[in-house]
UniProtKB/TrEMBL annotation:
Organism: Hypocryptadius cinnamomeus
MF terms (GO), sorted A to Z: ATP binding; microtubule binding; microtubule motor activity
Alphabetical keyword list: ATP-binding, Cytoplasm, Cytoskeleton, Microtubule, Motor protein, Nucleotide-binding
Binding site for ATP: 88-95
Main location group: cytoplasm
Any one GO CC term of the record: microtubule associated complex
Leader peptide range in chain numbering: none
The protein's name: Kinesin-like protein
Stored Gene3D superfamilies: Kinesin motor domain
Length: 358
């Protein structure tokens, strides 16, 4: 607590797709073990190091256990603000890593072996809650940032834009966002699937189910040790514990599924798809700029432009504030995706230098 903590960055390399294999694409990314990965192609020969590297054969369970996700769940229960975000080119496996296969629903659940980091974290959270015997209140909120509009994915009716506010006590927050309490695994998975089905997706040349928005699912974990609710804006810190029987803690576990970076020329996007792509790329550029500045030593940092996009505003606390953050960089091993893969690897390498003070 209060010590400088680096962002934990892990890398996942997806398998070559059937289309890439048929086309004769070469595999240019190779895992070397011990968190190192090597890129070898014409005029490119580079090695990158991460906290962990998961190659094409890694199971969903191996990614959950090896990424440090279990520790992140436990830290959220201890009152810390924890964030995991998946980053990479469109079609690189971000949504699969976080959620598992597409097309799952309440009536057609995914095979347990294919479940992603989210569902595994929910299971871990509820198991830990029962084993600790603590009286926890759990709730979830789910939003998307589509064309620089923040939209609630859980509120009834068509998604409408919500205002993003700033306060000294809370930092940036979304006004009037719905938060839904849950007590069982079925309830939170149902909320996740319900919200995901309302998220904007489209098909283009690189991805049949391309996410056209950034999505943020936040689990709020509060111990119910307080007899009275704190005053508005006070939170559940020391003020709450003074009035209650035992100290209260409030932690968060936020899952961020970023829309994929893409080149309009490669995806064949036009019209509305092109507008969406430009909006996605602008916000990812703003995020990359913030990460580059945060990677500098604290004494040499200039102003961090969090206000440049809605995405960076909502991730401000996770990236450079008092949170604990895990970044899962997802890449394709195909020679055809080399330029985007190198871009993601450089991006992720910079993120490893960012420090926070949890």
């Amino acid at each position: 607590e209060g010590r400088e903590t680096r962002l934990r960055v892990v890398l996942r390399v997806r398998p070559l797709t059937c289309t890439e294999t048929r086309r004769g694409d070469q595999q240019v990314v190779h895992s070397l073990g011990d968190g190192a990965v090597h890129v070898s192609a014409a005029r490119h020969d580079a090695t990158f190091g991460f906290s962990a590297v998961f190659d094409a054969g890694a199971s969903q369970e191996a990614v959950f256990e090896g990424s440090g996700m279990r520790q992140l769940v436990e830290l959220a229960m201890d009152g810390f603000s924890c964030t995991v975000f998946a980053f990479g080119q469109t079609g690189s496996g971000k949504t699969y890593t976080l959620m598992g296969p597409l097309g799952q629903s309440d009536t057609q659940p995914a095979s347990p072996a294919l479940l992603g980091l989210m569902q595994r974290s929910f299971t871990c959270l509820l198991e830990q809650s029962r084993s600790r015997g603590s009286d926890l209140a759990l709730s979830a909120s789910y939003l998307e940032i589509y064309n620089e509009q923040v939209r609630d994915l859980l509120s009834p009716g068509p998604p409408c834009a919500l205002p993003l506010r700033w306060s000294k006590t809370r930092g940036f927050y979304v006004e009037n966002q719905l938060s839904v309490e849950f007590e069982s695994l079925e309830a939170i998975v149902s909320l996740l699937l319900q919200g995901s089905q309302r998220r904007r997706t489209s098909a283009h040349a690189l991805n049949r189910h391309s996410s056209r928005s950034h999505a943020l699912l936040t689990i709020h974990v509060r111990s119910r040790g307080v007899s009275a609710h704190p005053a508005p804006g006070q939170g559940w810190g020391a003020q709450g514990s003074a009035r209650g029987a035992c100290p209260s803690k409030q932690g968060t576990l936020c899952f961020v599924d970023l829309a994929g970076s893409e080149r309009v020329k490669e995806t064949g996007s036009s019209g509305e798809l092109s507008v969406e792509a430009n909006s996605i790329n602008r916000s990812l550029l703003a995020l990359g700029h913030c990460i580059s500045l945060l990677a500098k030593p604290r004494g040499k940092r200039t102003h961090i432009p969090y206000r440049d996009s809605k995405l960076t505003r909502l991730l401000a606390r996770s990236l450079g504030g008092s949170g604990i953050t895990l970044m899962v960089a997802c890449i394709s091993p195909s020679s055809r995706c080399l330029s985007e893969t190198l871009s993601t690897l450089h991006y992720a390498s910079r993120a490893r230098k960012v420090t926070t003070r949890p």
